[in-house]
Protein backbone atom coordinates (compact mmCIF):
# COMPACT_ATOMS: atom_id res chain seq x y z
CA UNK A 1 0.00 0.00 0.00
CA UNK A 2 2.76 2.48 0.91
CA UNK A 3 4.44 1.64 -2.38
CA UNK A 4 1.19 2.54 -4.09
CA UNK A 5 1.15 5.96 -2.42
CA UNK A 6 4.73 6.69 -3.48
CA UNK A 7 4.02 5.44 -7.00
CA UNK A 8 0.88 7.54 -7.12
CA UNK A 9 2.72 10.67 -6.04
CA UNK A 10 5.47 10.10 -8.59
CA UNK A 11 3.18 9.17 -11.46
CA UNK A 12 0.16 11.40 -10.88
CA UNK A 13 -0.55 14.75 -9.38
CA UNK A 14 -1.01 15.26 -5.67
CA UNK A 15 -4.66 15.92 -6.36
CA UNK A 16 -5.20 12.50 -7.91
CA UNK A 17 -3.21 10.83 -5.15
CA UNK A 18 -5.13 12.70 -2.45
CA UNK A 19 -8.37 11.60 -4.07
CA UNK A 20 -7.25 7.96 -4.08
CA UNK A 21 -6.25 8.15 -0.41
CA UNK A 22 -9.55 9.80 0.43
CA UNK A 23 -11.50 7.08 -1.35
CA UNK A 24 -9.68 4.38 0.63
CA UNK A 25 -9.94 6.21 3.95
CA UNK A 26 -13.61 7.13 3.44
CA UNK A 27 -14.39 3.52 2.48
CA UNK A 28 -12.65 2.33 5.66
CA UNK A 29 -14.38 4.95 7.81
CA UNK A 30 -17.85 4.23 6.43
CA UNK A 31 -17.54 0.43 6.38
CA UNK A 32 -15.34 -0.31 9.40
CA UNK A 33 -15.18 2.66 11.79
CA UNK A 34 -18.87 3.60 11.88
CA UNK A 35 -20.46 0.58 10.18
CA UNK A 36 -23.77 -0.47 11.66
CA UNK A 37 -24.11 -3.58 9.52
CA UNK A 38 -21.62 -6.32 8.68
CA UNK A 39 -18.97 -4.85 6.37
CA UNK A 40 -18.54 -6.10 2.82
CA UNK A 41 -15.63 -8.45 2.10
CA UNK A 42 -13.62 -5.67 0.44
CA UNK A 43 -13.83 -3.62 3.65
CA UNK A 44 -12.72 -6.62 5.71
CA UNK A 45 -9.77 -7.13 3.37
CA UNK A 46 -8.79 -3.48 3.72
CA UNK A 47 -9.16 -3.66 7.52
CA UNK A 48 -6.93 -6.75 7.59
CA UNK A 49 -4.31 -4.90 5.55
CA UNK A 50 -4.47 -1.92 7.91
CA UNK A 51 -3.96 -4.24 10.88
CA UNK A 52 -0.89 -5.66 9.14
CA UNK A 53 0.41 -2.13 8.41
CA UNK A 54 -0.73 -0.13 11.44
CA UNK A 55 1.38 2.93 10.58
CA UNK A 56 -0.03 3.31 7.08
CA UNK A 57 -2.88 5.73 7.74
CA UNK A 58 -0.99 7.65 10.47
CA UNK A 59 2.03 8.16 8.17
CA UNK A 60 -0.17 9.38 5.34
CA UNK A 61 -1.92 11.82 7.68
CA UNK A 62 1.43 13.06 8.98
CA UNK A 63 2.65 13.58 5.41
CA UNK A 64 -0.49 15.52 4.50
CA UNK A 65 -0.10 17.76 7.55
CA UNK A 66 3.54 18.38 6.66
CA UNK A 67 2.55 19.38 3.13
CA UNK A 68 -0.18 21.73 4.33
CA UNK A 69 1.90 23.32 7.08
CA UNK A 70 5.42 23.44 5.72
CA UNK A 71 5.20 23.45 1.93
CA UNK A 72 3.60 25.66 -0.66
CA UNK A 73 0.50 23.73 -1.58
CA UNK A 74 -1.82 25.28 -4.07
CA UNK A 75 -4.84 23.09 -3.50
CA UNK A 76 -5.69 22.63 0.16
CA UNK A 77 -9.20 21.56 -0.80
CA UNK A 78 -7.89 18.34 -2.35
CA UNK A 79 -5.66 17.61 0.63
CA UNK A 80 -8.35 18.41 3.19
CA UNK A 81 -10.56 15.57 1.97
CA UNK A 82 -8.25 12.68 2.88
CA UNK A 83 -7.10 14.53 6.01
CA UNK A 84 -10.62 14.60 7.43
CA UNK A 85 -11.23 10.96 6.54
CA UNK A 86 -7.98 9.92 8.21
CA UNK A 87 -8.65 12.04 11.31
CA UNK A 88 -12.09 10.50 11.72
CA UNK A 89 -10.74 6.96 11.36
CA UNK A 90 -8.64 7.44 14.48
CA UNK A 91 -8.97 10.49 16.63
CA UNK A 92 -6.22 9.09 18.88
CA UNK A 93 -3.79 9.08 15.96
CA UNK A 94 -4.75 12.70 15.26
CA UNK A 95 -4.25 13.60 18.91
CA UNK A 96 -0.80 11.96 18.91
CA UNK A 97 0.16 13.71 15.68
CA UNK A 98 -1.01 17.04 17.04
CA UNK A 99 1.20 16.51 20.11
CA UNK A 100 4.18 15.68 17.86
CA UNK A 101 3.70 18.78 15.74
CA UNK A 102 3.30 20.99 18.80
CA UNK A 103 6.42 19.50 20.43
CA UNK A 104 8.42 20.20 17.27
CA UNK A 105 7.67 23.92 17.48
CA UNK A 106 9.40 26.54 19.66
CA UNK A 107 8.04 26.61 23.21
CA UNK A 108 6.83 30.19 22.88
CA UNK A 109 4.68 29.17 19.87
CA UNK A 110 3.11 26.01 21.29
CA UNK A 111 0.13 27.57 23.09
CA UNK A 112 -0.84 29.62 20.03
CA UNK A 113 -0.57 26.53 17.84
CA UNK A 114 -2.62 24.46 20.28
CA UNK A 115 -5.41 27.01 19.85
CA UNK A 116 -5.02 26.69 16.06
CA UNK A 117 -5.48 22.92 16.37
CA UNK A 118 -8.59 23.39 18.49
CA UNK A 119 -10.05 25.70 15.85
CA UNK A 120 -9.25 23.14 13.15
CA UNK A 121 -11.91 20.80 14.48
CA UNK A 122 -14.41 23.49 15.56
CA UNK A 123 -17.92 22.68 14.31
CA UNK A 124 -16.63 19.54 12.56
CA UNK A 125 -18.51 16.35 13.42
CA UNK A 126 -17.89 12.64 12.82
CA UNK A 127 -19.24 12.47 9.30
CA UNK A 128 -17.99 12.72 5.76
CA UNK A 129 -20.96 14.55 4.34
CA UNK A 130 -20.27 17.47 2.01
CA UNK A 131 -21.19 20.18 4.49
CA UNK A 132 -18.87 18.73 7.14
CA UNK A 133 -16.04 18.33 4.63
CA UNK A 134 -16.49 21.93 3.52
CA UNK A 135 -16.37 23.15 7.12
CA UNK A 136 -13.15 21.21 7.72
CA UNK A 137 -11.65 22.68 4.53
CA UNK A 138 -12.51 26.20 5.69
CA UNK A 139 -10.99 25.46 9.09
CA UNK A 140 -7.88 23.99 7.49
CA UNK A 141 -7.34 27.11 5.40
CA UNK A 142 -7.54 29.27 8.54
CA UNK A 143 -5.37 26.79 10.45
CA UNK A 144 -2.65 26.93 7.80
CA UNK A 145 -2.73 30.71 7.67
CA UNK A 146 -2.62 31.04 11.47
CA UNK A 147 0.14 28.43 11.73
CA UNK A 148 2.33 30.19 9.19
CA UNK A 149 1.90 33.63 10.77
CA UNK A 150 4.66 33.45 13.37
Automatic annotation (TrEMBL):
GO CC annotation: cytoplasm; nuclear pore
Assigned keywords, A-Z: Cytoplasm, Nucleus, Protein transport, Signal, Transport
The protein, known as: Uncharacterized protein
Coiled-coil blocks: none
GO biological process: protein export from nucleus
PANTHER family for this protein: EXPORTIN 4,7-RELATED, EXPORTIN-7 ISOFORM X1
Keyword S-adenosyl-L-methionine on entry: no
Amino acid sequence: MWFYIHFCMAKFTFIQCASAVDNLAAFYFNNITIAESPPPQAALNLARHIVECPNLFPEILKTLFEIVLFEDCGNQWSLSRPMLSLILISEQVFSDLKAQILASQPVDQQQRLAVCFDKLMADVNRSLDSRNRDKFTQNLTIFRHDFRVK
